[in-house]
Amino acid sequence: MTDTRRRVKVYTLNEDRQWDDRGTGHVSSGYVERLKGTSLLVRAESDGSLLLESKINPNTAYQKQQDTLIVWSEAENYDLALSFQEKAGCDEIWEKICQVQGKDPSVDITQDVVDESEEERFDEMSSPGLELPPCELNRLEDLAELVASSLPSPLRREKLALAVENEGYIRKLLELFRVCEDLENREGLHHLYEIIKGIFLLNRTALFEVMFSDECIMDVIGCLEFDPALPQPRRHREFLTKTARFKEVIPISDPELRQKIHQTYRVQYIQDMVLPTPSVFEENMLSTLHSFIFFNKVEIVGMLQDDEKFLTDLFAQLTDEATDDDKRHELVNFLKEFCAFSQTLQPQNRDAFFKTLSNMGILPALEVILGMDDVQVRGAATDIFSYLVEYNPSMVREFVMQESQQNDDDILLINLIIEHMICDTDPELGGAVQLMGLLRTLVDPENMLATANKTEKTEFLSFFYKHCMHVLSAPLLANTTEEKPSKDDFQTSQLLALILELLTFCVEHHTYHIKNYIINKDILRRVLVLTASQHAFLALCALRFMRRIIGLKDEFYNRYIMRNFLFEPVIKAFLNNGSRYNLMNSAIIEMFEYVRVEDVKSLTAHIVENYWKALEDVDYVQTFKGLKLRYEQQRERQDNPKLDSMRSILRNHRFRRDARTLEDEEEMWFNTDEDDLEDGEAVVPPSDKMKSEEDLMEPITKFMERKKLKDTEEKEVLGKSSLSGRQNPSFKLSFSGSTKTSLSSPPSSASLNPGSPGSPGSPGSGARSSPSTTTVTTRGGLVGGLVDYPDDDDEEEEEEEDGESKEDPLPPSKKSKLSS
Fold this sequence. Notes:
Elements: E1 7-13, E2 19-32, E3 37-44, E4 50-55, E5 62-65, E6 69-75, E7 78-84, H1 87-101, H2 118-126, H3 140-150, H4 154-166, H5 169-183, H6 186-201, H7 205-211, H8 217-223, H9 236-243, H10 255-274, H11 287-306, H12 308-319, H13 325-342, H14 347-360, H15 362-370, H16 375-391, H17 393-404, H18 413-422, H19 430-442, H20 456-467, H21 469-478, H22 490-509, H23 512-521, H24 523-528, H25 536-551, H26 555-563, H27 568-577, H28 583-597, H29 601-615, H30 623-639, H31 641-652, H32 662-670, E8 681-682, H33 693-709, H34 711-723, E9 735-736, E10 741-742, E11 772-774, E12 777-778, E13 786-787, H35 793-803, E14 815-816
Parallel strand pairs: 8-11
Antiparallel strand pairs: 1-2, 1-7, 2-3, 3-4, 5-6, 6-7, 9-14, 10-12, 11-13
C-alpha cells in the first residue's frame, strides 16, 4: 500500500505571485553525491520521474505553515512549497530539515532572513531577544511604536514575530480591544489598529492561524475598523454578521469543509476590503496571506469534488422542474462560485475538475438554466458556460453536435446562446459582446482537433452552417430588405456590427462553408445596405466585410460581385461622403487601391466599364486613374496577344550574362549534343522595347558568317559525339519575308526553361543549360534560328542604343524561327 504520509504536491511561485502546481509525488530525504549533501527528493507518483531535487542548505530559511506546508526559497526569485497530504509526513520531513540545520523542530522557521549590512546584523544579533511591553492600556502607544520601528528590519521583524507568538500576545491584545471598545477609548482603538496591521505585515503563518481562528477573527476585523485616518469607524463586523449570509444550497455534511469555507470567505474579505491597499514596499509583505487563501481554495475545491453525493444532489436539483426559481438562483450562483474557485487550480487539476462536472451533466443543466426568464440566473449561467468554453471548446462542440440529432434547432444550446446575444437588453450590449466572443472561440478552426478517424473542423462547421447560421444572420437579413436599414438605432447597429464581426471572422477562416452561404443567400448585397447607415462604425463594418472577401482574390467571389454589381453601394457611399477626409473615405479608397496594386483583372475591368464616369473626376489620389491605366493595358493585351507574350519574354530576360570569349563559348556550345539542350532558354537582348527589323536581323547575319567558319570544327566534334553513343545535334536555319509574326514554344524535343543563361554544357557532361535562343514561327511554315551569345558586346551596345525603352511588336516584314 502506498505511504500516504509522504504524498506531497510540489508548488513554485510564479512572477504573478501565484503558486503553480508542478505535480504530485512522494517525498524522501537522503544523501546525494552530486549535490554533496542531504537533499529532498520528490518522485512523481504517475511515472516515477524526478519532480524535485533540492539540497538542504544550512543557511536556507525553511518555514512550516498550517501543519502541512513547508515553504522555502531556492534563489532570490524562486520560491518552493511542499503541500503534504498528512501532518505526520510534514512533521517527519521538517524534523529532517531541522536536523541538518541543527535547529529545534518545534520552531516554524529555521533561519532569519537577513539582508542588512554586516555591522547592523552584528549589532542586532549581539542584542538580546525583543522584549515586548506589558499588554496594558497605558502601554499600547509604546507597543505601536515598537511594531512600527521593527517592520523595516527583517531581523527585528522576525524577533518581533517570535515574541508575539511565544507570549500568546494576540489573544491579550484582543481582550484589550474589547475593553477599549466598551470604554469607547478611541485613542487606544487607534493604537490597536496600527498594532494589528503591523502584525499582518510580519507575514507569518503561525500568527495568521491564531488571528483567523473562529474565536479571534471577528475581533481582529473589529480592530481594523478603527483606522485613525477615518473620521468614523467602518462597520465590517456588522456586514459579515448581518448582511453577508452563508447559505447551504446543498447541505454540507463535513464540518471541516464548512469551517474552511467560512474562514476563507472572511480572510478574503480582510484582504480585499479591510486591509488598506498595500504600498509597493508592503506588497510582498502580505505574500503569506495570499498563499493562505490560495491553499484554502484548493482544499475546498478538492473536498467538494470528492463528495459525489453533494455534486449529484446539486445537478439533480438544478435540472428538476419542481425546483423553485429562488432555489435554482442560489444553486446557479453556487456553481458559478465553484467554477471561479477552480481557476486557482493548476492545469492537470482543472482538467479533472471539469471532467467531473461534464460527467455530472453540466451542459444539459446549463441548457435548462439558459431557457429561464430570470436575467440574473441567465447571466450566471453565461459565466459558467464561458469557463467551459475557455477550458475545452471541443467538449462543448461534441455536446451540441450530439444534441442536434435528438432536438429541434430552436432548443439547441448554441442557438440559445445566439438568441441571448441577439436579445440582450443592455444598451451597451455587454452580455452580447461576451457571448459573441464565446461563439468565435467555438467556430475557430485553430482550436479544433483532427484525428485519424474524423476531422472536428469539417463536422462542426457543417453542423453550424446547417443548424445555426440562419439564426445568427436573421437580424441582418431582417434589417436589410430595402435600400436602407429598416432600423438604424444605436442598439440595433451595435448588434449588427457584432454579427458582421463574426461573419468577417468566418470569411477569413471557413473558406468554402461561408462562401457557399454568402453566394447562395446573397449575404454581401444585404451587408452593403448597411453602408447607408447613419452610424459610421456600422458602415465601416460592412466595408471591412467586403474588403476581406476581395482580399481572398477568389474568382467565385469576384464573379458574384460583378454579376450583382455590388460595387454600386460602395461607390454611392463614397460619393455621398463627398470631400470629407475621414475613415470612410480612406477605407473605400484603400479597397480600390488593393484591386489596382494586386491587379485583380476581372474586378478592374468591371469597375472601369461600369463606374468610370462616376470616378473620373477624383484626382486627389491616383487610385482610379491607375485602375483606368490597368484596364487599358489589359485591353491592349487582349487586342494584341502577341504583344503580351513578347513583353513577358522581355521582362524575364533583362539580365546580362557573364562575359566569355566568343570562340570558347561557341566551341563549347557546338560540342554539346541534343541531350544537353533540353533546358534551352528564350533570350532577347536586354531592352525595354523590341528592335527594328534591321537590328533584329543583323546578329543573325553575323551568326551565319561565323557558322561557316566553324563547319570543319563541327564535323570533328560531331564525330566524337557519335563515338560516345549519343545523338548529334542538328539545326536548320532559314528565313521568311512573311507579314504575320507570332511567338510559340519550340517542339517538345527541346524545352525552353528559364535556366542559367550563358552556362552551356561541355562534351561528356550531363544535361545542362544550352545557349539562349529566341523563337519566332512564321505563317509560311519556314524555320529560322537566332542564337544570342553573352559576349557579343558590340551587338548588345548597338541594340541598347537603338531600342532603349521601347516595346513595339516585331516588324511585320521579318520572321525567324529556330527548330531542333
